[in-house]
Specification:
Layout: H1 3-19, H2 23-30, H3 32-35, H4 41-54, H5 57-74, H6 79-90, H7 101-108, H8 115-127, H9 131-147, H10 154-169, H11 176-197, H12 201-215, H13 219-233, H14 237-249, H15 253-262, H16 271-275, H17 278-293, H18 297-308, H19 317-328, H20 337-364, E1 370-371, E2 376-378, E3 384-386, E4 394-400, H21 405-420, E5 427-434, H22 438-448, E6 454-457, H23 461-465, E7 473-477, E8 482-487, H24 498-507
Parallel strand pairs: 4-5, 5-6
Antiparallel strand pairs: 1-8, 2-3, 4-7, 7-8
Length: 508
């Protein structure tokens, strides 16, 4: 058997045991990577990923870092060895700050157009605290990319994006002319990247326009970019909405209002978008300002009200309402601004309730109605839970993992749901841990203390059966064992819209 075959076999064995939930066995055979000569880098990588999943970060560091140091000390400093060592340091919290200076020095000794050299520049930029120093490393990286692979290289594309992000923090880094040039280069590089990776070209066009809007830079070019995009790709909703935003920044109020108003109903798709999302609240403000610009005072009042009474109010919406009040009070000069504000809030609450009902009806009408796939899983304590045993009950599966920040964000909302239905015998919540080791599950339980059972699913049985693509994913199954709803988002408001779905299934 060839050396390549043996190396591939060890890495594959580790992955197979890992994916089948046999973590201890995977860890045991992964020790073979440490004895390989030449080094089996694929097996090293599989071993380190396994350790990072099995243990806390502190314990994982104690195990992995000595192995990285031994690898660097005993093996030739090839690009492959330096690359795997670098990225393992980067996978710990703190990222580039973990990488020793000596490793950066070794990486920079390789030819200037190699991946390992450019990776070092990127890491040094990330580690730098000073914006001008970051800028220096990004400029060097751009020069190297230009000398090697050109604008199609993904390094070239995303380094330009990082530079634009730096200008957003420190506007003094680039003049208006240089910023214009930077956005143009970013668009060209991004289009090449999309072609190479078969991503949608509209992504590149819209990102370019968004940067021009963010900096209020050459908005005439933003319109030209959208025109080119439509010629190439046809008319798309995102293009039309961005064009309306450009008109808004140009104070072309009539065109801005018509364009923005066309897409306002899009925000009635979810509770989060309608009442919490910062982008939506800003959109309502822009609509209010555009309506004010064309002296449509009633519409301006409605949209400013939506922006002002949102859970996170727009900072300028109250001032907009005051300007509208100055116009409207001519018809009723005895009304004070505070009285006017109170009346608009009452009108808002009526609209708010209507919008919530619209969203509720839309969500509840979208049933899946498929026979739920049965499964049997255990908790850390070895207690078994079988879905088919829950006949006559509504079951909500919370599919998530400890590494998922959005999953952690939803836990307080799930606790509200648990408390609300705690006396309802026909409803249960089960957490389903998506493929993690028992050690990681225990850490999560210790941190969050969920009052519902959390089931271990090391082989991702549930995720495969219910076609889970993103977590958290909430699967709701009715009393007859039929899968009725999926909600694959962390966008919850005090447990809604999950509470609506639970209530609907309980009332069936």
């Amino acid at each position: 058997m060839s050396d390549d075959k043996q190396q591939q076999d060890l890495a594959t064995q580790i992955k197979n045991y890992h994916s089948s939930g046999e973590f201890d066995k995977a860890l045991e055979i992964s020790k073979g990577a440490l004895k390989s000569n030449p080094p089996d880098l694929k097996a090293y990588d599989s071993r380190w990923k396994l350790i990072a999943e099995m243990f806390s970060e502190e314990d994982a560091r104690k195990r992995i870092i000595p192995e990285i140091e031994a690898l660097l000390r005993t093996q030739p400093e090839t690009p492959e060895v330096l690359h795997i060592a670098y990225w393992r340091y980067m996978n710990f919290s703190g990222r580039a700050k973990n990488v020793p200076n000596s490793l950066f020095d070794k990486m920079l000794q390789h030819p200037r157009t190699t991946t390992v050299y450019m990776t070092a520049l990127l890491g040094l930029a990330e580690r730098s605290e000073d914006a001008s120093q970051k800028w220096h490393y990004y400029r060097r990286l751009i020069d190297e990319c230009t000398a090697s692979d050109g604008p199609g290289n993904s390094w070239y594309c995303f380094t330009h994006k990082n530079m634009l992000g730096l200008v957003e923090v420190d506007r003094s880094l680039a003049s208006d002319d240089y910023l214009d040039e930077l956005i143009d280069r970013y668009l060209k590089a991004h289009l090449s990247y999309c072609q190479e990776t078969q991503q949608r070209f509209s992504w590149a066009y819209t990102e370019s326009v968004k940067w021009r809007l963010k900096f209020n830079n050459r908005l005439d070019k933003a319109l030209e970019t959208l025109e080119r995009a439509e010629i190439r790709l046809g008319e798309e909703k995102d293009f039309s909405r961005l064009r309306a935003e450009v008109y808004y920044h140009q104070e072309r109020w009539s065109e801005a209002y018509d364009g923005l108003n066309t897409y306002a109903p899009d925000f009635l798709g979810s509770l989060w978008k309608r009442f919490v999302d910062e982008g939506t609240i800003n959109y309502f403000y822009m609509l209010g300002r555009s309506a004010e610009g064309i002296e449509n005072w009633e519409k301006a009042k409605d949209y400013y009200t939506d922006a002002h009474f949102a859970l996170t109010p727009h900072s300028d919406a109250r001032a907009g309402l005051k300007r509208v009040y100055q116009q409207i009070k001519r018809r009723n000069p005895t009304t004070t601004f505070e009285e006017f504000l109170k009346d608009t809030e009452a009108e808002y609450k009526i609209r708010e309730e209507a919008d919530r009902e619209h969203i509720r009806q839309k969500l509840l009408s979208n049933r899946i109605n498929e026979k739920a796939t049965d499964f049997r899983l255990q908790t850390l304590d070895g207690e078994s839970y079988t879905l088919s045993d829950m006949s006559g009950k509504v079951v909500m599966l919370d599919v998530g993992a400890s590494w998922c920040g959005y999953c952690s964000f939803t836990i307080p909302h799930l606790k509200l749901i648990h408390d609300q239905f705690s006396k309802t015998k026909d409803f249960v919540i089960w957490g389903v841990n998506d493929g993690e080791t028992p050690q990681k599950v225990q850490e999560s339980l210790d941190e969050h203390q969920p009052p519902w059972p959390v089931l271990l699913d090391p082989t991702r049985e549930v995720a495969k059966a219910y076609k889970v693509e993103y977590i958290p994913d909430f699967i709701l199954i009715d009393k007859n064992g039929y899968w009725q709803y999926r909600y694959d988002s962390a966008d919850l408001i005090d447990g809604q819209p999950l509470i609506w779905m639970i209530e609907a299934l309980l009332s069936d």
